[in-house]
Amino acid sequence: MEAFTDQNETSLLYKGEPIHKHFPALQQSVYGKPLVYFDNAATTQKPQAVIQAITDYYSTINSNIHRGVHFLSQKATDAYEITRNAISEFINAAHAYEVIFTKGTTDGINLVADAFGSYGLGPGDSVLISAMEHHSNIVPWQIACEKKGAFLKVIPMNEAGELLMDEYEKLLDDKVKIVSLTYVSNSLGTVNPVKEVIRLAHERNIPVLVDAAQAVQHTKVDVQELDCDFMVFSGHKMYGPTGIGILYGKEEWLNKLPPYQGGGDMIKTVTFEGTEYNDLPFKFEAGTPHIEGAITLLSALDFIKEVGLDNIERHESELLRYATERLSEIPEVKIIGTAGKKAGAISLIVDGAHPYDIGVLLDKMGIAVRTGHHCTQPVMDFYQIPGTLRLSFAVYNTKEEIDLFMTSLKRAIQILI
Amino acid sequence: MTINEKQDELIDEFEFLTDWVDKYEHIITSAKELPLINEEYKQDKYLIKGCQSKVWLYPEMKDGKIYFTADSDAIISKGLVNLIVQVLSGYSPSAIMEADLYFIDRIGLKEHLSPTRSNGLLSMLKQIKMYAFAYNSLKA
């Protein structure tokens, strides 16, 4: 796949053009300055193809799925199931029915935490998470543990933001019923050794959930190779629409777990005496789903496929390397999270300036970054900081934008200190 | 000077700053020159917690008027807090309760008062009004 025109070209090409040209939202000016969008870990912008697919959906397909005998309903059902197949292929699931549509990563974790809590947690049991989890991979487990008298235990990390694998092994006792951890940290950028984490858990027959919300858009993810039992991610962080996400679960696990929500589509027969649940994947898809989101997610997958995940990964790693190198020019800047393997995001603090102040000034210079705790308050407590400024990259970002960011950051620091 | 006259003065002061960054630079520069709140009042009792930055607000009643001093750990918040304090400090509880703060919108800083900004400013404004309400009830 053609990626760079030459070594010095910093923009990826798509259909023969610099890729950012395919993203209408990136063509705007804010406060009279060209928009530089570095908040991709929160959500990515959408390519024209996805925006068009949404219009097409409502213009030509809109109908409820799985129930109607009429033409449009069948068209919608087909399109919905085509995306499921494409997702299954994208993550290399063994079966398409192991792919469940959810509202997003948070919804997926809540589903597993709730269902697994009912199925496999008892008094004195524990759930193991890591020190760098997003609140969405902490709170649902706290709720599940509280209901069952179980405990939440945490795999510690070092100052660089890397998991302490020795400590992890020590924590893996027979009380641990499930391990749930992030593939890539949203606030530190750390890429965790999930394959090794899974291998060690499986030696003790403990299932593992992988939060891949910050992974699937950056690198090739293969659920069979990783051998994870569950994986969750969101459509809107991978160039797709908001409100749609994926839960992958191994067939044996999805069959064992009780349903999360009851309603239409998840049943075979209903009487007032009892209900027979539907087969996978429908058992976990109660009610009318986000049909438009699921169907148009296919365009986002096509986009990723056409650009090529290898190209995306190479381009984004180069941006990360370049930004890290350039940030070392400013003595007041300290990068938070210096793991050996990182993807997607750089968090930093500036000595003598509050992240909020820098964020506001950068915004006025046309640069969108995120400041705060990034829904990982325990990580901020670990480093004893109120928050960080985070820049996170996507396929359309360029080195020129990083240069612009650097000039703006220097000006902001000059104003503030 | 009335509260509204103070607001109009601030609107005039900001009028010539058309560039956004200049506007914020002005807020920051003035915040840097500010006297800090008395350290003894920088305690949880006077803390208004935002999601990203903290604001401390201390009220004092003297001769029927409420005087405020305030601070923040973020300098832009501190500057904005100061603007609000400048306008509302030194008036009677009823004047503060009835005040309509139109200057924030007019100088283009309304976004900082939206609930999603989570910088504690909106809560601070509510707190000021609550102090005014409380002192007013005490008086009665």
In short:
The complex is a heterodimer of chains A (417) and B (140). Chain A is an alpha/beta fold.
Average pLDDT number of chain A: 95
- The total strand number of chain A stands at 19
Instruction: Write down the CATH class of the largest domain in chain A.
Output: Alpha Beta
Taking all Cα atoms into account, the compactness measure Rg of chain A is 22 Å
The CATH topology annotation of chain B reads as Sufe protein. Chain: A
How many domains, in number, for the residues of chain B? 1
Q: How much beta of chain B, percentage-wise?
A: 5-15%
What structural keywords apply?
heterodimer; A: 417 residues; alpha/beta; Aspartate Aminotransferase, domain 1; Aspartate Aminotransferase, domain 2; seven-stranded mixed sheet; four-stranded antiparallel sheet; 19 strands; globular; disordered N terminus; B: 140 residues; alpha+beta; Sufe protein. Chain: A; three-stranded antiparallel sheet; 6 helices; 49% helix; transferase (chain A); PyrdxlP-dep_Trfase_major (chain A); pyridoxal phosphate (chain A); cysteine desulfurase activity (chain A)
How would the blueprint of this fold be written?
The complex is a heterodimer of chains A (417) and B (140).
Chain A (H helix, E strand, L loop, with lengths): L12 E2 L2 E2 L10 E2 L2 E2 L1 E2 L10 H14 L9 H20 L8 E4 L2 H16 L5 E5 L8 H10 L2 E5 L9 H7 L4 E7 L11 H10 L4 E4 L11 H4 L3 E5 L10 E5 L1 H6 L10 E4 L4 E3 L13 H17 L1 H19 L5 E4 L8 E6 L4 H10 L2 E2 L1 E3 L4 H7 L4 E5 L6 H18 L1
Chain B lengths: L2 H13 L4 H13 L14 E3 L4 E9 L2 E8 L2 H14 L4 H6 L4 H4 L14 H19 L1
Antiparallel strand pairs in B: 1-2, 2-3
Helix pairs in contact in B: 1-3, 2-3
